[in-house]
Amino acid sequence: MKSTASAPGKVILFGEHFVVYGSGAILCAINRRITVSAEAITEKKIRITSDVGSLDMEPGIPACDVGSSLRSLYHIADTALRSHGIPGIKMAVKSDIPAGVGLGSSSACCVAGAAAVSGLFPDSSREKILELAVDAERTAFQGTSGADCTVCTYGGIIRYGAKSHEKIEPGPGFGLAVASSGTTHSTESVVARVKKFRDANPAEFSRMCDAESEIIRSAKGQIEQGETAELGRMINQNQQYLEAIGVSNQTLQEMVRIGQGAAAGAKITGAGGGGCVFALTDGGTGAADAFREGGYECFAAGIDCDGLIVFN
């Protein structure tokens, strides 16, 4: 039996880093996807192939001892083998989301992988798949909030809180232009940098968390009403906080200024330190053209409303 699942990437509209400290976040699933297939095998092996490498190991090894970027998928497969008593699993990954640039490749891979493996067995609800995906992502990023996996699972635009999430229906004219800096980042090292800032500046960081929470509360209504100008202002404010906590750099700030000059607002998406910037558009090409004129690769990101899709 074979099971296949696909999950979208994402852009974080508001709240990266601050979400870990309770401020919440607003995220948008985008129309770039990762697809994972899974199949039970008779050998006592976990075999994974992907564009970024392969893995061929016996089950039963703690994920922390798996020296591979595929450890999250190994954890998913190993969990399934222990739960269902079959010898082995092989998995194959296909992606059109670049890795390490803040577009949710790891989360989409965990969600699609959890769904593909769960599809080999009965009673695989979306809630259980999400729980397994978040658990798997924590083998790579221990402090993950679960927000990325949630939007990759449910799709659309969501407001995420520690205990719940809700869908946001965007008003007319909501569009995103996503530009790449051409460099990847290490989420772990950037997260450590933010923690160092928080520990050294507790009062300032607390103030920014409170302000970010207020932005997120207000932004929901602005998205629903299609109030692009006010939404852009809040996106730019969020960017100022990201620069203050040290996750930006000269290249990203140059890209943000290009985006802000051609659109209502622009900011980093994801951990920072590299990766991507997005600009809020009304569906026009002005921001994308400006990024390209600046020498940056860019694409228009549509909202993926489907989220996780399982084919089996």
Features:
4-stranded antiparallel beta sheet; 9 helices; 8-stranded mixed beta sheet; alpha+beta; globular; 312 residues; single chain
Q: What is the alpha-carbon Rg in Å?
A: 19 Å
- Tally the beta strands: 12
Largest sheet: 8 strands, mixed
Principal-axis shape:
globular
Count of alpha/pi helices: 9
Question: How far is it from the N-terminal to the C-terminal residue, by CA?
Answer: 9 Å
Please mark out the parts with pLDDT under 50 across 5 or more consecutive residues, or reply none.
none
% residues in beta strands:
25-35%
Based on secondary structure, the structural category is alpha+beta
The succession of helices and strands, N to C, reads EEEEHEHHHEEEHHHHEEHEE
Fraction of residues in H or I helices? 25-40%
Mean pLDDT: 94
Characterise this structure:
The chain is of the alpha+beta class and about 300 residues long. Helix content is about 40%, strand content about 25%. It contains nine helices and twelve strands. Strands 1, 2, 3, 4, 5, 6, 7 and 12 form an eight-stranded mixed β-sheet that branches.
List the helices and strands and how they pair.
Layout: E1 2-14, E2 25-41, E3 46-50, E4 53-57, H1 71-84, E5 88-95, H2 105-118, H3 126-137, H4 147-154, E6 157-160, E7 165-168, E8 175-180, H5 187-200, H6 202-225, H7 228-244, H8 250-262, E9 265-269, E10 276-281, H9 286-293, E11 298-301, E12 309-311
Helix pairs in contact: 1-2, 1-3, 2-3, 2-4, 5-6, 6-7, 8-9
